[in-house]
Write a structure and sequence with these properties.
alpha/beta; six-stranded parallel beta sheet
Length: 470
């Protein structure tokens, strides 16, 4: 299959905006403004995609709701990374048959990574006939045209062909957060880790032009956003496919040079492409938050090779030492898969040794979940689930102790934090984030939301910090 990145022309994007106006002309004739419900599963890239879907819907005349009964259009943006997420999605989609029976005019749309899997799309076609529209990430830019077709012709639409992927600029965005924003700098992945479905459903790596990224960030800063995260499946690969190549460290420096008081974060990074130049740039750029999410997945070299991670344990640890020498207060987080096919308990011990040496601030941990269509799904997997669970619990216990100790070291300090919202715990008024992205539950007035404020840390546990505005 041809894997050359295509760029959607401004004229084609404008055509989609014209379809938005055609849909808006239809919805304007309805008795009251229609509402849409956009439900998102998975990673921050999916969240960013949902913001563009909401942008299109707003242009079509829709307001928004979280009540399925009130929604004229329901969009479920799905994740294919883990089996549990897939089962949740299918269960919720199945339950919508009752909602649609009560509201037959309702449009139900499924999108995201799951819909790019042919077997899943076919299951939806055969067994979930109340679903009107299925489209993968590559077809998102054509969403208005598909909605217009459904409103004027009805029927069902499936747009999930296997494509290289494209880049479309100029799609409107409706962001749910007023303090933090996601900015996609690239799409797709070329790494083909043996357990991962992403390259198959999101296509090959393709980078946005730096001028488009910088213009988006400048607009966000002008709107008052204080916490901006640059997104990519592997941000460290940014720029390799551009006509005039530039690397991620160079892009980071250009974003840092934009005037304004804001923090820059980024994710996700791959160890094989995380360079000394990147670490030096992070240390030098005052707006780049002192935090790095650097997944290592397993601590044993044989397992890493079976995963096709293309780095060794020693190489990973060397990079961490280099980073800590440049940014001593760096906050480190990572991903770990427990129970990869063929992993023995002895090999798992090497993962625990990495935790003990690096002492991560937090981890995202998973028991291996086979994804159909990936090489790992066909590998022999002799270890029982019970043994994997025992190892998983050992991992959690070790990391919980490290996290609690690291968080405890904050107590008594005053830290400049970004107050980003309201606490869901009645004992605390607000939530804030340290520069290293640690959650702080804060006592203080609501006028602080959206501001950088000094917070005195008064307590901590393994999950979060507690404090009061100074």
């Amino acid at each position: 299959m041809e894997r050359t990145t295509t760029t959607i022309s401004p004229a084609d994007v404008e055509r989609q905006l014209d379809f938005c106006q055609k849909v808006a002309a239809v919805t304007a004739q309805w008795p009251q403004q229609p509402l849409a419900f956009v439900d998102t599963y998975g990673c921050q890239q999916n969240e960013a995609d949902s913001e563009r879907i909401r942008g299109y819907l707003a242009q079509m005349g829709f307001g928004f709701t979280t009540d399925e009964e009130k929604a004229r259009v329901i969009v479920i943006n799905t994740c294919a990374i883990r089996e549990h997420a897939e089962q949740r999605v299918l269960g919720n989609v199945g339950a919508l048959v009752h909602v649609k029976r009560r509201h037959p005019e309702q449009l139900i749309c499924l999108c995201g990574c799951m819909m790019q899997e042919p077997s899943v799309a076919e299951k939806i076609r055969q067994s979930y006939r109340h679903v009107d529209l299925v489209f993968g990430p590559h077809a998102l830019w054509k969403f208005p045209e598909m909605v217009h077709t459904l409103l004027t012709q009805r029927g069902r639409i499936f747009q999930n062909a296997d494509e290289a992927g494209s880049i479309a600029e100029g799609i409107p965005v409706v962001r749910q957060d007023k303090v933090k924003a996601w900015v996609s700098i690239m799409y797709g992945c070329n790494n083909f880790c043996t357990y991962c479905i992403v390259p198959y459903v999101r296509g090959r790596e393709r980078s946005r032009k730096p001028e488009d990224i910088l213009a988006e960030v400048e607009g966000l800063v002008a709107e008052g956003y204080k916490d901006i995260t640059l997104l990519g499946q592997n941000v460290n690969s940014y720029g390799k496919d551009l006509e005039e190549p530039m690397d991620f460290a160079d892009l980071l420096e250009k974003v840092n040079a934009i005037p304004g008081d804001f923090l820059i974060r980024f994710m996700t990074s791959h160890p094989k492409d995380a360079t000394h130049k990147l670490f030096e740039t992070m240390a030098r750029c005052e707006k780049v938050a002192p935090v790095l999410h650097l997944p290592f997945q397993a601590g044993n070299d044989r397992v890493l090779k079976a995963m096709n991670r293309r780095h060794t344990r020693a190489e990973y640890l060397d990079k961490i030492r280099d980073l800590k020498s440049l940014i001593p207060d760096i906050v480190l987080t990572s991903d770990i898969i427990v129970g990869f096919p063929g992993e023995t308990t002895e090999e798992f011990e090497d993962t625990l040794k990495v935790l003990e040496e690096v002492r991560f601030d937090a981890l995202f941990t998973f028991i291996f979940s086979p994804r159909p269509g990936t090489p790992a799904a066909k590998m022999e997997d002799p270890m029982s689930h019970e043994e994997k669970l025992q190892n998983f619990n050992r991992l959690l216990a070790l990391q919980d102790a490290i996290s609690e100790e690291k968080h405890g070291a904050y107590v008594g300090k005053t830290v400049r934090c970004l107050v980003d919202g309201f606490s869901d715990d009645s004992r605390w008024d607000l939530t804030a984030r340290t520069p290293g992205n640690r959650l702080v539950r804060v006592v203080g007035g609501k006028e602080a939301v959206g501001q950088f404020r000094d917070v005195k840390i008064t307590g901590a546990n393994k999950w979060s910090l507690f404090g009061e505005l100074v």
